[in-house]
Amino acid sequence: MFLAILAVAIAGGFLVAFGAGDDYTELSPGAAVKAGTFFLVLAGWGVSLCLHEFGHAFVAYKGGDREVYFKGYLTLDPRRYTDPVFSLVLPLLIVAIGGIPLPGGAVWINHHSLRSRAIDTMVSLAGPLSNLVLGGLLIFSIDVFDPGVPLAGALSFLALLQIFAFVLNILPIPGLDGWGAIEPYLSPEAQRFGAKARPWAPLILFVAIIGLPGVANVFFDISNTVFGAVGGDEYLSAVGNYAFFFWR
Q1: Residue from 26, 53, 183, 189 carrying the catalytic annotation
Q2: CA-CA distances (angstroms) from residue 248 to 164, 165, 177?
Q3: I need a labelling partner for 10 at 20 to 30 A (CA). Which of 43, 107, 187, 201 fits?
Q4: How far is Cα 23 from Cα 13, in angstroms, rounded to an integer?
């Protein structure tokens, strides 16, 4: 299934690259560019979700948790996830509707089998760092290959979503990877609080981001700052954003 999602992203890229007509403009990209951007970004986000969870599983496996292998988490196949609907389908739907790259909790880690607290922290950080690295690679590919504006815009918008996911996931809030990174070093009382807050704390944050424009704007401002710091072009990401949300 992972290869199928990747194939959709590649097909979308070809459609964007070769579907722009002579009358293409950023404000009137045409049906082919709009469709290609939509499929490239949406499927590209699906690929990144798989890589994010694979990052958690791979570091956990190297750190002593052998159960991730037997559960199939090292295959990149999202059908192996604990809950494919909430881990893949729902994040894709929310990106498609609102452009908010929410994470999906999928890989179950046996933290007691990890060899040290440092490894436990690395397991949590592996997911968001994969988003940051992927975003950087997308930006680097644009700089190196210098594609046309339609494809550069689509790739830039996908890169911005990766940076947004990194910024969101790195927050030290129970249920997010940022909390998992510091949790091994917290007091037992704080860990118990985190365990109780884990089911609802991310939900409150996500509702605030989706329902309160001011909260979403803060996250996008921070993400744009990081995006620019790693070489991203805000104009190109805006071009991709416009083509992706073709119905607006």
Answers
A1: 53
A2: 21, 23, 33
A3: 107
A4: 19
Tell me how far CA of residue 225 lies from CA of 91, 93, 94, 153, in angstroms: 23, 26, 23, 17
Indicate the burial class of 19 (C-beta count within 10 angstroms; 0-12, 13-18, 19 or more): buried
Please give the Cα distance from 157 to 72 (Å, whole number).
31
Name the pTM for this structure.
0.92
H helices present in the chain, as ranges: 2-19, 31-62, 67-70, 84, 90-98, 117-145, 149-169, 177-182, 188-197, 201-211, 213-229, 234-244
Residue 177's closest CA among 135, 216, 131, 126?
126
**DSSP, res 86:** I
Model confidence pLDDT, tens digit, residues 135-190: 999 999 999 999 999 999 999 999 999 999 999 999 999 999 999 999 999 999 99
Residue holding tokens 């939509």?
38
Told to judge if 53 belongs to the known catalytic residues of this protein, a careful annotator would answer yes
The answer to whether 37 touches 240, Cβ cutoff 8 Å, is yes
